């Protein structure tokens, strides 16, 4: 067999000496296993435009996810300003079923019917210290949203946000969006 490809020598060596190829693969796998992989943070403390006041200020912001609103797709993200947690979307929310809520891991759900800014922001402002504590210790938060129009009725849509990086971002937020060590 004649190999004329630029990698011919390497291929020929792997064919005639398969143990060398196995050693190479095992070595590479070992290197990759020892390389620390850091999960991307799903939260940042950053100067961000407040969707209600339109003023730029230090806010704690989640990653933006897309979800169905029953008819189309809409972006959704979580925003914390120190006083409340806001679920921000570009579709109008429907509170008529009293089922808008969030759940941190397996904790009991927290309900809210408080919407603002053209009915596109759901606000959670009850017991924020407890909610922050749950976020800091949690893995994920699931927000259940329902969108208008109510006829034909659409279901509640669960959107799951990662809490990876929340504690570090919250520490930075507490220091005016300055990085912490």
Give the helices and strands, then pairings.
Blueprint: H1 8-16, H2 18-34, E1 43-49, E2 56-62, E3 65-68, E4 73-80, E5 85-89, E6 101-104, E7 110-111, E8 115-116, E9 121-124, H3 128-137, E10 140-145, E11 157-162, H4 166-174
Helix pairs in contact: 1-2
Overview of this protein structure:
The structure is a single chain. By secondary structure, the chain is α+β, with helices and mostly antiparallel strands. It folds into 2 domains: 1-37, no CATH class; 43-174, Immunoglobulin-like (Sandwich), CATH 2.60.40. The protein is built from 4 helices and 11 strands; from the N terminus they run ααβββββββββαββα. The strands form 2 sheets. Strands 1, 2, 3, 4, 5, 8 and 9 form a 7-stranded antiparallel sheet that branches. It has a 4-stranded antiparallel sheet with strand order 7-6-10-11, covered by helices on one side. The chain is globular. The chain starts with 7 loop residues before the first helix and ends in a 7-residue tail after the last helix. The model is unreliable at 23-38 (pLDDT under 50).
Labels describing this entry:
single chain, 181 residues, alpha+beta, Immunoglobulin-like, 2 domains, 7-stranded antiparallel beta sheet, 4-stranded antiparallel beta sheet, 4 helices
């Amino acid at each position: 067999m004649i190999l004329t490809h630029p990698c011919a020598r390497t291929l020929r060596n792997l064919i005639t000496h398969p143990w060398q190829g196995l050693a190479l693969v095992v070595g590479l796998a070992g290197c990759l296993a020892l390389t620390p992989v850091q999960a991307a943070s799903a939260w940042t403390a950053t100067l961000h435009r407040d969707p209600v006041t339109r003023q730029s200020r230090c806010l704690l912001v989640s990653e933006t996810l897309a979800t169905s609103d029953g008819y189309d797709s809409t972006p959704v993200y979580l925003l914390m300003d120190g006083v409340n947690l806001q679920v921000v979307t570009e579709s109008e929310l429907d509170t008529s079923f009293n089922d808008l809520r969030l759940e941190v891991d397996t904790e009991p759900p927290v309900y809210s019917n408080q919407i603002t800014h053209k009915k596109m922001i759901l606000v959670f402002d009850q017991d924020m210290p407890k909610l922050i504590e749950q976020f800091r210790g949690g893995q994920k938060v699931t927000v259940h949203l329902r969108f208008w129009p109510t006829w034909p009725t659409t279901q509640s849509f669960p959107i799951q946000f990662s809490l990876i990086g929340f504690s570090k971002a919250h520490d930075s937020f507490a220091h005016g969006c300055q990085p912490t060590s």
